[in-house]
Design a protein that fits this description.
Elements: H1 2-6, H2 11-40, H3 49-54, H4 57-69, H5 73-93
Helix pairs in contact: 2-4, 2-5, 4-5
Amino acid sequence: MKDKIFKRDHYGTGLLLGLLLPVLLYLVLFAIDFLVFRFFSTHILAKQDYLYILSLVVNLFTIRYYFVNLKYDKTGRGILIVTFAYALVYFILY
């Protein structure tokens, strides 16, 4: 069933992927940064807000996969819309 959800050309699928993947990557990067700081007393990045923008990188690979490999334009556009929204929020906040 999981394959059917991610193999649909639908805006909702793109929006869901675009929202969840950067959040998951942010949590993983934050956990790694926390562990590095705990053991070595230094952060991976100079500023913590860089983790936010770095977590958007996963959407670029996902957009390419859905546009080029699968030819799912609606799903790719959904991911693209969310990526632009995340970037806009980043520039407003920081």
